[in-house]
C-alpha cells in the first residue's frame, strides 16, 4: 500500500490540503467560530466563514494565523486536527506523514510549536517546508538540480522570496506585503477618496474584478456598494482599474523590492541561471492582473505566474517527503 503523505498549506486566509493518494482534497477558510458561553468551537473552516458577520455577542471569530504567523496555537491545533481528519476520511486511523508549509525565516520556537501541534493532529512523522521550496516543487521545478531558481510566493499574509539550488534555500526573505495588504489598501483608498466604507470581502471582489499592477489602455469599471462615511446610509459608486492600480502601488512596490533585493544578493553563477530560467510567481496574490509584467519590466528578468497558483504550495508540501527520501537513497 503506497504511503499517504499529507501536505498542508496553512494560509492566513485559506488552508489547502494535498494527499499523495487522493490529490487536492480540501481548500477551506482558516477561521474558527468560538462559543464563549459553552467554551466550545462552533464551526471551523468554510462553515465558520459563512457565520462571520452574523455571529452574536457570545461568539468570537478567530483567525489563528495573521500575516503568515500563527498567533493562537491552541485554536490552530484544533483547526489542523479538523483539516487532517477531513482529508483522511475513513483512513483517519492510519497515521500519515504530514508536511506543513511555513514562512521563510520562522524561529526555532515557532518550528517546535508547529511540529508539536501537527503530532497532536495525528501525524506519524512531521516535516516543515519553507513556502518557496514547496511552491517550486508544486510548480514542477526539479529542485534537486544544481541550477538557481527564484521563486516568489505571494500569499495572503506574506510574500516569501527565495533562490533555490540542489534542494536547498540559498538566500530568502519574507515581507508582510501580500494579498491581505492589497485588500486593506483598496479599503483605505475607497474610504478616503469616495467616503465609502466597504468590507474586506468587497475589497477582495474589487481586486479580482478590476485590480491591476500595470497601467491599462482601456479602463475597466465596477459598481461598488458600501456605507457612506458621513451619513451611514448605503451608497453605490463606480470605481476604475486605474484607481485600484494607484491604491495598490505601494504594496506592489514592496513586493518588487523584495524580489530585487534577493536577486541582488544572489551569487553570480545562480543569478545567471535565473536570468536564463526566469522568476516564478506562485500564491493567490500572484494572480493580480499585470503583476508578472510589472516585475519583468522593473527587474529585467522574464517572469511567469504558474497555473493553479493558489494550489501549488500544498501540492509541493505533500510531495516534499518523497523527494527528500529519494535524495537520501
Instruction: Kindly state the number of beta strands.
Output: 18
- Class by alpha and beta content: alpha+beta
Task: Please give the share of residues in helix.
Answer: 25-40%
Element-level helix/strand string: EEEEEHEEEHEHEHEEEHEHEEHHEHEH
Number of helices: 10
Q: What spatial order of strands do you see in the largest sheet?
A: 3-2-1-9-10
How far apart the termini lie comes to 20 Å
Task: Summarize the main sheet.
Answer: 5 strands, mixed
Shape: flat
Low-confidence stretches: none
**Roughly what is the average pLDDT, rounded to an integer?**
90
Range of strand content: 25-35%
Computed over alpha carbons, the radius of gyration is 21 Å
Describe the structure.
With 329 residues, the chain is an alpha+beta fold. It is built from 10 helices and 18 strands. The strands form 5 sheets. Strands 3-2-1-9-10 form a 5-stranded mixed β-sheet, with helices on both faces. Helix 4 packs across helix 10, helix 5 crosses helix 6 (200-210) and helix 5 (179-194) runs antiparallel to helix 7. The longest helix is centred in the last third of the chain and has 24 residues, at 241-264. It is flat.
